[in-house]
Amino acid sequence: MDFVTVPNNIPNSENIIPSTTIGNTSSTTISLAVPPSRYENQKRRDWNTFCQYLRNHRPPLSLSLCSGAHVLEFLRYLDQFGKTKVHNQTCPFFGVPNPPAPCPCPLRQAWGSLDSLIGRLRAAYEEHGGKPEANPFGARPIRLFLREVRDFQAKSRGISYDKKRKRPKARKLPQQPPAGKTN
């Protein structure tokens, strides 16, 4: 196997690329290193955070023993790092979309953030060899928890997360040629 040196001014390329010769033809493959997408980076960070949580759990948990209850525990743990004001039912601003003054209500993880996190962890679980039917991130208690969080936060902030109904697709009429023009 020969090696071809590529100039350093080609972005995202390896400097040494294997070259193979088959008969009289030579083929060189240039593999451009594509950086992972923002989604892939976030999914990796989320997965590493969850695995770290399992290692720090007392007693430490292996991924095979992880259940929906452990995922709920993880979500509640993450709640303390949230940035979304969620008014308690006793707060005078409960249900007020734009409160006129500050209040002592806690900051929590937003429902949309939790929903996205679960989606990424669900995908990462399967990428790391987990079976889809045993995925703790897709368990029923997780879906119920997310629904409760969404509904409570909507009431707390005075907004609704009503399901958007799908509109029926408009039927397209056959195109008529413009009047006065013939082919």
TrEMBL record:
Instruction: Supply the InterPro entries for this chain.
Output: ALOG, ALOG_dom
Entry keyword annotation includes Ligase: no
Q: Name one GO cellular component term.
A: nucleus
Xref: Pfam families? ALOG_dom
- Region annotation Disordered: where it falls in the sequence: 156-183
Record carries keyword Transcription regulation = yes
> Composition bias, kind Basic residues: at what positions?
163-172
Keywords (alphabetical) are: Developmental protein, DNA-binding, Nucleus, Transcription, Transcription regulation
Q: Which GO terms describe its molecular function?
A: DNA binding
Q: Tell me its family.
A: Belongs to the plant homeotic and developmental regulators ALOG protein family.
From the Swiss-Prot or TrEMBL record, give the protein name. Answer: ALOG domain-containing protein
